[in-house]
Amino acid sequence: MKKIIVKLVLMASLLSASLAFSVPIKNIEILGLNAISRGTVLSYLPVEVGDDYGTQTSSKIIRVLYKTQFFKDIEVTEEDQVLKIKVIENPYIKYVDFLNNSEKVLDQDTIEKVLSSMDLTQGKIFNKKQLDELIDQVKSTYISQGYYNVKITKNIEIDNQNRVGVELDISEGEIARIKTMRIMGSKTKTEEELLDLFEIGEPNWFLLNYFTEKDHYSKIALDAGIEALKSQYINSGYLDFKVTEVKSELSEDKKNIDIALQIKEGNKYTIGNIDFSGNTLNKSDKSLTKLLTIKSGDVFLRKKIINDIKVITDAYTEQGYAFVKVDVTTTASTIKSVIDLNFKIIPKKKVYINRITITGNTRTQDEVVRREISVYEGGLYSDKALEDSIAKIKRLGFFSNVTMRVSKVKDFSDKIDLNFVVEETKTGTFSVGVSHSSSSGTAFNLGVQEKNFLGTGNVLNASASNSEAVKELSIYFSNPYFTQDGHNINYGIFNKKTDGAQLDVASYKINQSGGSVGYGIPITKNTRITTNLKFSNRDVTCGTDFSDKYEPTQCASNNKTEVKFNANWSHNTLDNYNFPTAGDKRSLNLSVALPIADFRYYKLNASQKKYRPLFKNITFKTNTKIGVAQGYGDTELPFFERFYGGGSSSVRGFDFNSLGEKYENGKAKGGKLSVLTGISVISPLTFVKDSTNMRLSAFIDIGGISEEVFNFATSDLRASAGIAFTWLTPIGPLGLYAAEPFLKQEGDKTKSFEFTIGTSF
Fold first, then answer.
1. Residues spanned by the domain of 420
2. Which residues does the UniProt record annotate as the domain POTRA (predicted)?
């Protein structure tokens, strides 16, 4: 009992002593603040005015404030119930500069993001620990790019205003180069095929390697190549494929590296049973199976299955099931290397379109865009119709970008709103001034070409040109939606004077005046037929030598009037007006000078352009154009209606109108048959930050002009290869090319470089 009483007395004594040293805090003073606000410090304090100050309070405050890393010294005292906190702030950052860093490894954008993420930007409190972490991170970045000898020296200076400046001087050293690279374990593919999947590897031919830097080691590139290797096998049916070992052996001087990959292909899987589950609605398993590109017994190809999911999805969205969900369950048998597929279909509700809005069209009228949209308010949703709509709007050429946003209507699970967002682009050209062209010489030009006149979608073409070769005045107007069904009408008048001698063809002059009217109708959503009737009066004056030696019959003729009927069939599925990456554009054009007037001849032209995506951002283009011209009714084809070739719109690398047979004076004679074809590989400029309006291409042009249709020979062909650059500049489209002929004949006129430019508004 006595022991218990003694313990209670001791506890009471300690409690009374503690209370004796606890005083209420009436005020808090914070001394020494410069960059940090009083409110910030108060928010971290474990006490506030009115709390008791005891023997443990000081240590708690110091511990909490040190954790903020704002201060390098803290002193806490209490005097007359006033809590006094005296601090010395850590310096705040004036700047953090990187010196001698490679933009390829560490560009300015990356630096700014890293500094921001680590709170090492201007005005932030300097933290030495964070700086050391930054240096470690930068070193890791360099090492991952193959710079194993990188060294970073830090220089820290604090000025008299307690501001710290940090300089990180980077000595990169030489990048590690790949000495050898091997892939072992493949049974179905050659090692060379697999190594081609990697951007890095053993060095190419030394001159090529200088540009490709193929032997520059990068762990990022190696990992990307391994992923490409896995995708290659898995997408080919080898689902058990593994990279079992990756060895990277660095030389002692850290300048060379040997890479060895060991792989295990596994078995090739085929597709077993294919069935369907869920709610297939009105579609039978048989009809769904017909939609698939994969069949039982085929090799399991992931890309094909992903494509077939989209095919089934599209089949249901066409019926209005906008939010249909299609899941594929795979059941694999490792013994038989067979995979069974089950397509589970969850159609959900049919969806109707509530509202269609168009935004971003500051100049183009809503109706111009709306008439290209194949779905209607109140109608069923159709994914394919909307894809076609976006493609049609892009093909107008009025907008640089077209996107569509879908939003659900509140309180209605079966209704959606569609918003087409467009970005206007320059659709017209206005030219005034003096120019020089390889095709027409020096010219004074004044003209307006607008394919979206006053935002109506109508086309206005008005131009006046006065050059050494051509003097022309013309006005044309076209309404592509003359009727609600998409019928178009066009009409215009013109006057044109041509001096053939200035066009490097022959010594003659033509003065032609007339007018035309045309009408077109759509056959399908991508196909149109247009007819045109052109009336003109033409005066032809021949030079003495030309009249006597070369074309005496035609020059002596009194033919003047011409009535030409033109029929044109066109098909267009291009995905973009300016820079297409997919689709075709085909046309067939027949022009006949009718016998009710003086001239009698016909021209038949066929052309085709194809665009196909080759790799990421790379487009492959093929183009072909064939023209045939003949007179009829015992009448010769007029010499000024013959085909000519050479120049920027024909076979580049050869002078304008220089191909084909020549007169004795060396001038081009032209021909009745024109054959042009070519291929191009097109890419945006990846080394330019924003190359949306720029394209670079490598091309091969092949073509020729034959004097007679059935006398075409290989000796008539010319060919060239080169590079071309196109830029939609603020002042108009600029194009230039450099070409070198590799198939030519003695006496050919060549031209290796040319450029054109216009003014847009």
1. 352-424
2. 23-90, 269-348, 351-425
